[in-house]
Write a structure and sequence with these properties.
2 domains, two-stranded parallel ribbon, 3-stranded antiparallel β-sheet, about 45% helix, alpha+beta
Length: about 150
């Protein structure tokens, strides 16, 4: 089992999720724990192994949608925090630019900070579960004393 610092896994997850699925990718080496970043949108100044997409020694960091942390998560939050607006939020997510409109709605209802906490907790939980399922030992540097 390879050990990888949580903050590195989290950064890779954010990178992958910052664009549409397949536009950004990150791969974890199951031998070294090193993370390689690849983008269809921009040139990355990093050399990546030739076989990272075909070898079983690399695992692709999932996009947030693969872990049901996109629209599904927003609807879960809506059902819990503002069930009266559920149909409206469902409608928002039928069109491009949904997250901006969703966050605008949350801000008008004074729930934006609650959303950020909910989203962060859900991302953390899902990412740690994904790591465990894929044989990646998370090194949690938040709990280690500073040097």
């Amino acid at each position: 089992m390879v050990a990888v610092p949580y903050d590195e896994i989290s950064s890779a997850f954010e990178f992958v999720g910052s664009a549409a699925p397949t536009e950004h990718s990150a791969y974890i080496s199951l031998d070294t724990g090193r993370i390689y970043f690849v983008s269809e949108l921009a040139s990355m100044d990093e050399e990546v192994p030739d076989d990272f997409e075909t070898s079983d020694r690399y695992i692709a960091v999932p996009h947030k949608n693969e872990l049901e942390l996109g629209k599904t998560l927003a609807l879960q939050f809506t059902a819990h925090e503002m069930s009266d607006a559920y149909e409206r939020v469902e409608s928002i997510f039928r069109y491009k630019g949904a997250y901006g409109r969703f966050k605008d709605l949350l801000e008008t209802k004074g729930l934006l900070e609650n959303w950020y906490r909910f989203e962060s907790g859900a991302h953390d939980k899902a990412l740690r579960e994904w790591c465990a399922e894929n044989g990646i030992q998370v090194v949690d540097n938040r709990t280690q004393p500073a040097a």
